[in-house]
Amino acid sequence: MMIRYRLMPPSTSSFARIKNELFVWLDADYQDQLGRLQFEGPAPIVAEVRRALSNAPGYRESKMNVDGMVMPLDLRTAMGSNVMRPFQPELVEGANVLTSPSPPTLTTEELTVEFASRFATWVVTNLPGPVKVQSYAWEHLVRGLQGTLFEWSFWRPKYPSEEMAASALAVPLREALAHETARLKNVYERRPIDQRLVPPSLTPEEAQQVANVFVEALDTAAPGDDGAATLIVRLHEQLLALGLMSRRET
């Protein structure tokens, strides 16, 4: 698979009268897969395009690394920039590549630990909320949930039932929550008790309940920003409904 753009010499170019198309492409199956740019067209126009691309922004870099390894996301960012607009870039192949992240490289066990750590951080810092919609914290959490839902789609089929998935998460989640409430003690203790979702430590049964909430919520979450935003609210409500803090107060 590849991502490929068609370009034309800009009207201000000395080669505009040639009316030759030029193609820039990158062999890749995923939006974040690294590869080298390829060019097809008259050499003088290729040189002009290369110069322009070297001044265009990449996905996370201030400038495109034309001679180095780049991602489809870099090429899309560059082609959508003001620098490349005179070349009238048109995506002619690879729209599906731009929406396909690379599959996780972690093993099932490593992903389990990663999910536990991620969920623990959210429970301590973000999910108690309320996180203001459209704030930086909200956008950061939405992006994190989108990435998690993608990885979840690879991890979850390893467990035939919700109960088995939650049981796999419960022990590392219990350990991660204890670690995060200690590591983020100032953040945790500044929050009013009635807004805390979990006590500093959980019993095995409580950890299983928290894991159940995450498994059920992620299993039924919809993709995209709206799905992630709904998931934030749902996780907050269901974790609060467990009443783990009130049990410790009685």
Would you kindly provide a written description of the structure presented here, covering whatever features stand out?
The chain has helices at 43-53, 72-79, 108-126, 136-155, 162-183, 185-190, 204-219, 224-242, 244-249; strands at residues 2-7, 22-27, 38-40, 90-93. It folds into 2 domains: 2-99, no CATH class; 108-249, no CATH class. With 250 residues, the chain is of the alpha+beta class. The chain is built from 9 helices and 4 strands, in the order βββααβααααααα. The model has no long low-confidence stretch (mean pLDDT 88). α3 packs antiparallel against α4.
Count of alpha and pi helical runs: 9
The chain-level structural class is: alpha+beta
Counting copies of identical and different chains, the oligomeric state is: single chain
Uncertain residue ranges = none
Distance between the termini: 60 Å
Shape: elongated
Rounded to the nearest angstrom, the radius of gyration is: 24 Å
Biggest pleated sheet: 4 strands, antiparallel
Q: How confident overall, as mean pLDDT?
A: 88
Please give a handful of descriptors for the protein shown:
single chain; 250 residues; alpha+beta
SSE map:
Elements: E1 2-7, E2 22-27, E3 38-40, H1 43-53, H2 72-79, E4 90-93, H3 108-126, H4 136-155, H5 162-183, H6 185-190, H7 204-219, H8 224-242, H9 244-249
Compact description:
The protein has 250 residues and is of the alpha+beta class.
